[in-house]
Design brief:
The chain is mainly β. It has no helices and 7 strands.
């Protein structure tokens, strides 16, 4: 637990990543709003954040909505990525942390390139589905060749 989390760069982000940690500058920030989801109403705010490798849309969910301001440098821990409109999107929610970081840890806004990671078409909306979080279906996804459960009788 005491070990330092590895920091990602925006250019390294891909759809379906979890436990993402990075330091970014907030380039734009919106006010919180309530949206309807399949799980009922949720509060969120959106921001565009960047580092020396590019920019990405950040959605802040629940208690984190509205916690960042334009120009601020923040350290985000335990975020995850999804795909939205063909681009990788960064998300921070109840298990994430967003805290202010020293201004020197991210480039000035005019030094941030306009690169945004793209999401491959086949991974639209993908956020895992296996691994440690559990998932749907069988662990290895294959069919058993013989017997019902593979147990000896």
């Amino acid at each position: 637990m005491g070990e330092k989390e590895e920091k990602s760069k925006i250019s390294d982000l891909r759809v379906g990543m979890e436990n993402v940690n990075l330091v970014v500058r907030v380039l734009e920030a919106s006010e919180p709003r309530v949206v309807q989801t399949k799980n009922g109403p949720r509060t969120l705010s959106e921001a565009v954040v960047g580092d020396e490798t590019g920019k990405i849309k950040l959605t802040l969910w629940g208690k984190l909505a509205g916690t960042v301001k334009e120009g601020q440098v923040v350290e985000i821990t335990n975020a995850w990525t999804t795909a939205y409109k063909g681009k990788v999107q960064l998300n921070a929610g109840s298990k994430s942390e967003v805290k202010e970081a020293p201004d020197s840890e991210a480039p000035a806004a005019d030094q941030i390139p306009d690169n945004t990671p793209s999401a491959p078409q086949q991974q639209r909306g993908f956020r895992g589905g296996g691994g440690r979080r559990g998932g749907r279906g069988r662990r290895f996804g294959g069919r058993r060749e013989s017997g019902e459960g593979g147990e000896e009788e």
